[in-house]
Amino acid sequence: MWRSCMRVSQSALQSKLGLGFCRRLSSSEPRKRFAALWGNGDFGRLGLGSLESQWRPAVCSAFDHHSLVAIACGGAHTLFLTESGCVYAAGLNDFGQLGVSVDKNYTTEPLEVSALPKKIIHIAAGYYHSAAITADGELYMWGKNSNGQLGLGKKAANAVSVPSKVECLNGISIKMVALGSEHSVAATDQGEALSWGAGGSGRLGHGHESSLLGFFRTSSEYRPRLIRRLEGIKVKNVAAGLLHSACIDENGSVFIFGERAMDKFGFREAKNATAPSMISELPYSKQVACGGYHTCVISSSGELFTWGSNENGCLGMGFMETIHFPERIEGPFSKNPVSQVSCGWKHTAAISEGNVFTWGWGGSYGTFSDDGHSSGGQLGQGSDVDHIKPKMVEFEESVRALQVSCGFNHTGAILEYIEA
């Protein structure tokens, strides 16, 4: 049994977290990586000890004595991965997506996902489900399972609150997993692409087609299934959105599948979009991200391309019309390359030269605004105003961004202090 992780210090949590960074590291101290979050605070998804929204980045000081290496923002929950390989979770837990036992169906404080038996090196969060990959390539999943999105088989419960190993993958090493609204996509160490969960709109890439009346004949996949249209192609990067998915192979080619995504392309018929199709308009690429109805790709040289639905300006082009073909975002990325991108439902975040840029939906309508809950702020710009062009997020200290993750209407980043 792998050693137990140290518990997060709960005494570090205060009701007014996030009003400033705790302190700056001196040059003699090791560079520590930490998490900052902003946006909708409903159900404590920010892990800041309260239900309040944050209009600007707030440090999750629950990890004052830990160094973080990754963050994954889901629908209304967040996963944190420490340098020692431990996973923590905060936010909504109505389907067990936190993987922890709590008295209420949510927690405002990050709690350890203690049922994971091994060191974790990769985490992912979907709308209501979660995943973790161990150092030896085992895949564990938990949360909502109504359409088989956990890959545990047809007899598994509709909600699984304890991380469960995907047993059918025994002997197969998983390198990366991406979670959408009700489906999952993964890449193996050998470059094979797998998908499972809800199959509507062709988001699994298995070639299902619509009937003449437009009703989908697709059915859920309850176990990981090889995407045969990608056989012979070594996949190295995968992404999952609301109703579409994408991947990149070792040659830098981008493949996309999902009818709602391909409806936005003028060069092909939607009925062919249920199987992976290569997008020839893109240069050699290294990362792809899928949002609600938009997609982003980073080329090998750091150029950022976007296309799809452009509600609230989530494509960052300076206007809100739909874009049918990949177009490069200029602005702050004209001279400085983009190293990472993440898509929320209708907002986007990217890292360039260690800075975080956000654009799209500012969150003027909270998820539960009708009930008097807090609204958004997921752009971290101090308000809930939409931005149709990338704008840099201001931090109170000199920091470098290492990773960014967009949830439904919240955002998180892994940062490190820049030495004086």
From TrEMBL:
<protein>
    <recommendedName>
        <fullName>RCC1-like domain-containing protein</fullName>
    </recommendedName>
</protein>
<keyword id="KW-0677">Repeat</keyword>
<feature type="repeat" description="RCC1">
    <location>
        <begin position="191"/>
        <end position="251"/>
    </location>
</feature>
<dbReference type="InterPro" id="IPR000408">
    <property type="entry name" value="Reg_chr_condens"/>
</dbReference>
<dbReference type="InterPro" id="IPR009091">
    <property type="entry name" value="RCC1/BLIP-II"/>
</dbReference>
<feature type="repeat" description="RCC1">
    <location>
        <begin position="137"/>
        <end position="190"/>
    </location>
</feature>
<feature type="repeat" description="RCC1">
    <location>
        <begin position="33"/>
        <end position="84"/>
    </location>
</feature>
<feature type="repeat" description="RCC1">
    <location>
        <begin position="252"/>
        <end position="301"/>
    </location>
</feature>
<dbReference type="InterPro" id="IPR051625">
    <property type="entry name" value="Signaling_Regulatory_Domain"/>
</dbReference>
<feature type="repeat" description="RCC1">
    <location>
        <begin position="354"/>
        <end position="417"/>
    </location>
</feature>
<feature type="repeat" description="RCC1">
    <location>
        <begin position="85"/>
        <end position="136"/>
    </location>
</feature>
<feature type="repeat" description="RCC1">
    <location>
        <begin position="302"/>
        <end position="354"/>
    </location>
</feature>
<dbReference type="InterPro" id="IPR058923">
    <property type="entry name" value="RCC1-like_dom"/>
</dbReference>
<dbReference type="Pfam" id="PF25390">
    <property type="entry name" value="WD40_RLD"/>
</dbReference>
<feature type="domain" description="RCC1-like">
    <location>
        <begin position="37"/>
        <end position="411"/>
    </location>
</feature>
